[in-house]
Amino acid sequence: MQSIYAMHQNDSDNLEKEEKFLFNSIENIRDLYLIMLSALVEIRNSEEDFIVKSQKKHLATAEDRNPNKKFINNKVLEILAESNALSIALEDRKINNWKLNDDYILLLLEDVKSSEVYEKYMHNRENNFEEDRQFVLDLFTEVVAPNEKLYDYLEDHKLTWVDDIPLVNTLISKQLKQLTIEGKDAFYVPKLYKDADDKEFVRNLFRKTVLNEVELAKEFIDKTPNWDTERIAEVDAIILKMAICEFLKFPSIPVKVTINEYLEIAKEYSTPKSSIFINGILDNLIKDYQANNKLVKTGRGLM
């Protein structure tokens, strides 16, 4: 939807170029995921470095010489730091943002150490896996993920990440909840696509919508007698075209799935009343398609 909208805004008709941008944007979601996850590792590493330097001070205090290492010995942070899957993914995607911008890690570490989550966790020196996991989850969701300076950095680094941040943070939180003590191989970096068909669906939906926009628009124009075409919000028009494209050109996708998906997109990206407007049009279209045997869906439960 965003890629088609961008094409309209730029008056672009270069399908190949815009499709490449679409797939690059999807690839960048993985980069954002790796950057957010590696931030946890780098925060831990930064604290470890601070402790080592403090111990070597000429006038080291008793606390400097015998610090509470519970944070740097956190089992979950150790699993992430020793994860082969994470290390390989970071190397493969050449993710070194925190090496180049370690000042952000220092700012995050400062916020971590001043947080209630950290203070409560560090009340003793004993590590327990369940407590370690809950601490890292709380630390990520309450301190790291909502950090405004980090958000500003990500927004400045790549504008398309603004919409991807909630998705990525939710995924990381889910993984942290499910992490077990099995060791460094217990953690995995999820794939961007379920399979080759999943990726091909992206390509097909984009192409079939763009290449058939005029025909797809004709499907709903007659269903909006009280609305001039120019009065329909551009995002709403794109959502309707994509939904109709799925109705008519993707026989394996259930009608209800299509409707639910696009209503959610409308609620997120369009006007407050858009979802009601779109739902009404799609509902009428479905009735017409069924009456005229125009809707061909394959498989069980696809209506």
Q: How confident overall, as mean pLDDT?
A: 91
Number of strands: 0
Helix-strand pattern, N to C?
HHHHHHHHHHHHHHHH
Our estimate of the beta-strand percent is under 5%
Number of structural units classed as domains: 2
Distance between the termini: 24 Å
Q: Roughly how many Å is the radius of gyration? A: 25 Å
Family: Belongs to the NusB family.
Pfam families: NusB
Domain NusB/RsmB/TIM44: 194-287
Protein name: Transcription antitermination factor NusB
Q: What does this molecule look like?
A:
It is elongated, with a radius of gyration of 25 Å. With about 300 residues, the chain is mainly α. The chain folds into two domains: about 20-185, no CATH class; about 195-290, N-utilizing Substance Protein B Homolog, Chain A (Orthogonal Bundle), CATH 1.10.940.10. The protein has helices spanning about 1-10, 15-55, 60-65, 75-80, 85-90, 95-100, 100-115, 115-120, 130-145, 150-155, 160-180, 195-210, 215-220, 235-250, 255-270, 275-290. The mean pLDDT is about 90.
Give the SSE layout.
Blueprint: H1 2-10, H2 15-55, H3 62-65, H4 75-82, H5 84-92, H6 97-100, H7 102-113, H8 116-121, H9 129-144, H10 148-157, H11 161-178, H12 196-211, H13 213-221, H14 234-249, H15 255-269, H16 274-291
Distinctive features:
303 residues, mainly alpha, N-utilizing Substance Protein B Homolog, Chain A, 16 helices, 0% strand
State the gist of this model.
This protein has 303 residues and is an all-alpha fold. It has helices at residues 2-10, 15-55, 62-65, 75-82, 84-92, 97-100, 102-113, 116-121, 129-144, 148-157, 161-178, 196-211, 213-221, 234-249, 255-269, 274-291.
